């Protein structure tokens, strides 16, 4: 028959050569074995990766180490002392001496990088933002800042002037 009804199935390997059904079944089983589920030791864990698992293991080791110690400790162990030494409090008065020892006088501090400054005097602004060193000295604003400062100074002057007049009237 030309349409293939009733014909036997032709099984082929990866190269395309004809093989028997039994060989084909073996190849399929080998393919299945390559899946991750067939190797449970390599299966991924839910909720984390390798680093999280390592962290969990370290935490468990630390807990077992602490649990093995007696409840009433009279002398702290070395690990605990190292943790205390590593911890730095912001209000520790001896911290400055430790920092001096770490830097040591033999190690000279590297001079801070001198950044170029703008040669022109900065204009007045509400946020005290200094101009960049490439500024050419020309103010290109619309005058809003000057207006703001003028109004602010005028209010302060009027307030102080009113207070002076009031004090002058109280003396009489």
From TrEMBL:
GO biological process: mRNA splicing, via spliceosome
Gene Ontology molecular function: RNA binding
Superkingdom: Eukaryota
Transmembrane parts of this sequence: none
Protein name as annotated: Pre-mRNA-splicing factor CWC26
Biological source species: Effrenium voratum
A Pfam family recorded for this sequence: Bud13
Recorded family membership: Belongs to the CWC26 family.
InterPro entries: Bud13 (IPR018609), CWC26_splicing_factor (IPR051112)
GO cellular component term of the entry, any: RES complex
């Amino acid at each position: 028959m030309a349409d293939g009804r009733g014909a036997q199935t032709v099984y082929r390997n990866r190269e395309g050569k004809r093989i028997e059904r039994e060989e084909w079944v073996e190849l399929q089983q080998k393919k299945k074995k390559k899946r991750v589920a067939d190797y449970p030791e390599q299966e991924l864990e839910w909720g984390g990766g390798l680093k999280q698992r390592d962290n969990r293991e370290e935490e468990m080791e630390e807990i077992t180490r602490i649990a093995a110690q007696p409840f009433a400790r009279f002398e702290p162990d070395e690990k605990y002392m190292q943790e205390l030494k590593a911890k730095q409090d912001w209000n520790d008065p001896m911290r400055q001496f430790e920092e001096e020892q770490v830097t040591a006088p033999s190690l000279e501090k590297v001079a801070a990088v001198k950044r170029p400054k703008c040669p022109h005097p900065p204009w007045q602004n509400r946020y005290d933002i200094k101009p960049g060193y490439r500024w050419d000295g020309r103010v290109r604003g619309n005058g809003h800042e000057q207006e703001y400062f003028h109004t602010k100074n005028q209010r302060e002057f009027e307030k102080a002037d009113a207070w002076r007049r009031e004090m002058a009237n109280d003396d009489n």
